[in-house]
């Protein structure tokens, strides 16, 4: 068993700053995030999406879509149909184990 599995990285202020500032995202409008040890010791991959900046849609700022950059659909409508976890704040998101990947 690896050390990373026993002690997954905890979110820092840097993670929250990146999550809340889409202009810093190198893969804009997406930001890859990861949650280690969440489900049976496995890692979960997800992305944040700048819906406000892209299409003016509010209410998805602290939402993790359960996908990775290689599986993102071509259209926003298809993307919004993907499974997601909606949080009220970035603090709730990081408390649930998500960090910038």
How are the secondary structure elements laid out?
Layout (H helix, E strand, L loop, with lengths): L2 H4 L6 H7 L10 E10 L2 E8 L1 H5 L7 E3 L10 H5 L3 E3 L3 H6 L3 E2 L1
Antiparallel strand pairs: 1-2, 1-5, 3-4
Pick out its properties.
single chain, 5 helices, three-stranded antiparallel sheet, two-stranded antiparallel sheet, alpha+beta, 101 residues, disordered N terminus
Overview of the molecule:
By secondary structure, this protein is of the alpha+beta class. It has one domain (3-100). It is 27% helix and 26% strand. It has five helices and five strands; from the N terminus they run H-H-E-E-H-E-H-E-H-E. The chain has helices spanning 3-6, 13-19, 51-55, 76-80, 90-95, and strands at residues 30-39, 42-49, 63-65, 84-86, 99-100. It has a three-stranded antiparallel β-sheet. The protein has a two-stranded antiparallel ribbon with strand order 3-4. The longest helix has 7 residues, at 13-19. The chain is globular and about 35 Å long. The relative contact order is 0.22. Mean pLDDT is 90; it is low at 1-5.
* Order of strands across the main sheet: 2-1-5
Helix content: 25-40%
Helices, by number, come to 5
Q: Evaluate the radius of gyration.
A: 13 Å
Structural class: alpha+beta
Shape, please?
A: globular
Termini separation comes to: 21 Å
Order of helices and strands: HHEEHEHEHE
Number of strands: 5
Structural domains: how many: 1
Mean pLDDT: 90
The share of residues in extended strands comes to 25-35%
Main sheet makeup: 3 strands, antiparallel
**Low-confidence spans:** 1-5
């Amino acid at each position: 068993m690896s050390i990373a599995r026993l002690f997954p990285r905890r979110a820092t202020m840097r993670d929250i700053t990146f999550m809340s500032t889409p202009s810093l995202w190198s893969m804009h409008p997406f930001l890859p995030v990861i949650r280690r040890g969440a489900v049976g010791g496995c890692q979960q991959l997800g992305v944040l999406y700048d819906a406000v900046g892209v299409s003016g849609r509010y209410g998805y700022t602290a939402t993790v879509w359960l996908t990775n950059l290689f599986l993102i659909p071509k259209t926003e409508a298809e993307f919004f149909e993907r499974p997601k976890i909606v949080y009220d704040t970035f603090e709730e998101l990081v408390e649930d184990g998500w960090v910038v990947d």
